[in-house]
Amino acid sequence: MGRPQIAVLVFEVYLSWSIAEAREKLSEVVRAAARDPQVITNRGPPVAVVIDASECEAFKDWREQRSEQTMAEALDALQAACTAEDYALQAPPRIDRANPLAD
């Protein structure tokens, strides 16, 4: 087992450890995770990422805020309300514009 490899994940470069390396050097992986996320791989592809506890808390807060209601869910609720009230949204007539690429 050599030195950890470098992994590119979402346009950023992080240290990459095989599962065996991470098991052998867990304390080093945890210390490094305080600075940057550490990618754990299994025969090449990434399978896990070790991150700092504060980053995990920030992620959980983001996920909780995100789970309140998505735009798709809001539109579904609007459509259900319109259906229940027998109301139809009137879309304005379509007006085609000149398209220089279609000529």
Short description:
The protein contains 4 helices and 4 strands, in the order ββααββαα. It has helices at 19-24, 26-33, 53-66, 71-84, and strands spanning 5-9, 12-18, 38-41, 46-50. It is elongated, with a radius of gyration of 24 Å.
Topology of helices and strands:
Layout: E1 5-9, E2 12-18, H1 19-24, H2 26-33, E3 38-41, E4 46-50, H3 53-66, H4 71-84
Parallel strand pairs: 2-3
Antiparallel strand pairs: 1-2, 3-4
Give the ordered list of helices and strands: EEHHEEHH
Shape, principal axes of CA atoms? elongated
Could you tell me the number of beta strands? Answer: 4
Q: How far is the first residue's CA from the last residue's CA?
A: 62 Å
Question: Which consecutive residue ranges, at least 5 long each, have pLDDT under 50?
Answer: none
Number of helices: 4
The residue-averaged pLDDT reads: 85
| Assembly context of the chains | single chain
Taking all Cα atoms into account, the compactness measure Rg is 24 Å
CATH superfamily of the domain at 5-51: YefM-like domain
Percent in helix: 40-55%
Top CATH class of the domain at 5-51: Alpha Beta
Protein described:
This protein is of the alpha+beta class and 103 residues long. The protein has a domain of 47 residues: 3-Layer(aba) Sandwich (YefM-like fold). 41% of the residues lie in helices and 20% in strands. It has a 4-stranded mixed β-sheet. The longest helix is centred in the middle third of the chain and has 14 residues. The radius of gyration is 24 Å and the shape is elongated. The mean pLDDT is 85.
